[in-house]
């Protein structure tokens, strides 16, 4: 099975380096390790990831929306923030998984796979809602 390609985005430099090393040690491929201050200068089209892993102490909806809409990939948010309104805003912004706890490498692969499947389901739902009556070409 090919390694999952992860784009790591964090709001803390030291933690980003620690998480990146932990991911690499646990057989993940980290294709980008960005902190929020570098997010605006990164060429989005160069990102070749399967999933975005956001790790934020204080998730902000505008940052989450920017990541979700710019990258258009499954997005998993890890945070210590269990505030109900923050969770709702993150889900509304397009996060496919909101995890309140640390990143446990033993559980991470399953969490990422679930997030990818949720994202695929969301894409199918979005396509159906955009074109609820597909045009069929009948044979002549």
UniProtKB/TrEMBL annotation:
Q: Name one Pfam family in it.
A: Response_reg
Task: Report the residue ranges that make up the Response regulatory domain in this protein.
Answer: 5-116
> What PROSITE patterns has UniProt attached to this entry?
RESPONSE_REGULATORY
Superkingdom, natural source = Bacteria
For this protein, the record's SMART domains field holds: REC
> Where are the 4-aspartylphosphate residues found in this chain?
55
- Which UniProt keyword terms apply here? Phosphoprotein
Gene Ontology BP, a term: phosphorelay signal transduction system
State the InterPro entries in the record: CheY-like_superfamily, Sig_transdc_resp-reg_receiver
Q: What is this protein called?
A: Response regulator
